[in-house]
Amino acid sequence: NGVLMSTLSRPSRMMLLVNPQSGQGQALTLYNNHIQRMLNEAGVTHTLVITERQNHARELVKEADLSQWDALVIMSGDGLLFEVINGLLERPDWAEAVRTPLGILPGGSGNALAASVHHYSGASLVSTEELLVSCGFLLCQGLVAHMDLVSIQLSSGPRLFSFLSMAWGFVADVDIESEKYRHVGAARFTVGTLVRLASLRVYKGKLAYLPASEDDHSEDEGSGNNMARHCNGQASSVAPSGDSPRQNTFHNSCHSNNSHKVRRTESTCKALGGPPDSLLPPLDQPLPSDWVVVTEEDFVLMLAMYQSHLAEDLLAAPHATSDDGVIHLFYVRAGISRAALLKLFLAMEKGAHLATNCQHLVHAKVRALRLEPHSPKGIITVDGEVVDYGPVQAEVHRGLARLITG
Ligand code: ADP
Ligand code: MG
């Protein structure tokens, strides 16, 4: 039985990064009360690292001797994983480093990846506490899947790598404004949405995208809880075929293929690390003719998703899997009423927003996109974190990272 096999071949050395300030400030308590015992009983050896400040995890991961660790696990919100992923890609050995299996335990107020992992396992919606226990079990099972990363180019600064979402307009504003309601936990987005609805506005800009070809997403039609494709090509079994059974789950199946070093090309790659972007011209250059330019320039929101959940209770991209190689682009055109927008967000709780037949909502599966906001000020978020406002473009790198999905 596949589950049993993977339980036997779990990792031996895990770095568990806990952010004591995330969410309602309870991550450490949650670790002590639930996770420590669960991992110990499952025989998962782990070293607890308590983050002390912003960017602590990023610096730590940038300098760490990764040969010491079979997995890096984050117990916080999505923000801490964003740091870890970007720390890995800033390393000179990023091509190896980014293959380190990453795990997530919900400890923050924005636990979208944890909710996505839970969803990919086929389980249904649960409360925050149940989500933690579920993710703890999945972690103990230790199945590793590929995870798409999206490189984000801004007009200033180096590239960023994103695992979850990019947002502009309504969703980005709610995400940031709702930081002040973090004491209510995951409900902060609901509160934020209601507050923002009262001051609904239009965001002007130019949006263009490169559509995904049909075979990019052949797997993701149909039911909303497809299993992610696992590294060894089998979702249900990690039975070792080689000679090192104990490490099969975390290393052999994932680190063996494709371990070439990618050469840097100066014209397309401003950042130190990460694969070059092959689909994006420089941000100030015109787009190729196979891109689709959205004719409207008045929006209520733009949301690019590459995992299923935008928040614990927002199933924004029901068909997304962790490695479909697709950016699920949503935008809502201006002209939508407050009532219709609220209806969309309520339907999103179960992933039913696309079925509401809202004429203002558009969904496209894309491989790259470019957004040029017209207004000089505003908010753009990447994985829920604010980035410099201005023109931005993005390209998906299929299965670049590794994610423990159970
Ligand atoms: P939440 O979902 O609650 O926002 P995050 O994981 O997104 O949780 O964490 C928010 C931010 O907290 C991250 O950007 C991280 O850099 C920062 N952080 C990590 N450790 C600490 C700490 N000890 N004190 C303050 N901030 C921290
Ligand atoms: Mg956060």
Automatic annotation (TrEMBL):
<dbReference type="GO" id="GO:0005737">
    <property type="term" value="C:cytoplasm"/>
</dbReference>
<feature type="compositionally biased region" description="Polar residues">
    <location>
        <begin position="233"/>
        <end position="257"/>
    </location>
</feature>
<protein>
    <recommendedName>
        <fullName>sphingosine kinase</fullName>
        <ecNumber>2.7.1.91</ecNumber>
    </recommendedName>
</protein>
<keyword id="KW-0808">Transferase</keyword>
<feature type="domain" description="DAGKc">
    <location>
        <begin position="9"/>
        <end position="156"/>
    </location>
</feature>
<dbReference type="GO" id="GO:0012505">
    <property type="term" value="C:endomembrane system"/>
</dbReference>
<keyword id="KW-0547">Nucleotide-binding</keyword>
<dbReference type="GO" id="GO:0043066">
    <property type="term" value="P:negative regulation of apoptotic process"/>
</dbReference>
<dbReference type="GO" id="GO:0071363">
    <property type="term" value="P:cellular response to growth factor stimulus"/>
</dbReference>
<keyword id="KW-0418">Kinase</keyword>
<dbReference type="GO" id="GO:0005524">
    <property type="term" value="F:ATP binding"/>
</dbReference>
<dbReference type="GO" id="GO:0016020">
    <property type="term" value="C:membrane"/>
</dbReference>
<dbReference type="GO" id="GO:0046512">
    <property type="term" value="P:sphingosine biosynthetic process"/>
</dbReference>
<keyword id="KW-0067">ATP-binding</keyword>
<keyword id="KW-0472">Membrane</keyword>
<feature type="region of interest" description="Disordered">
    <location>
        <begin position="213"/>
        <end position="270"/>
    </location>
</feature>
<dbReference type="GO" id="GO:0008481">
    <property type="term" value="F:sphingosine kinase activity"/>
</dbReference>
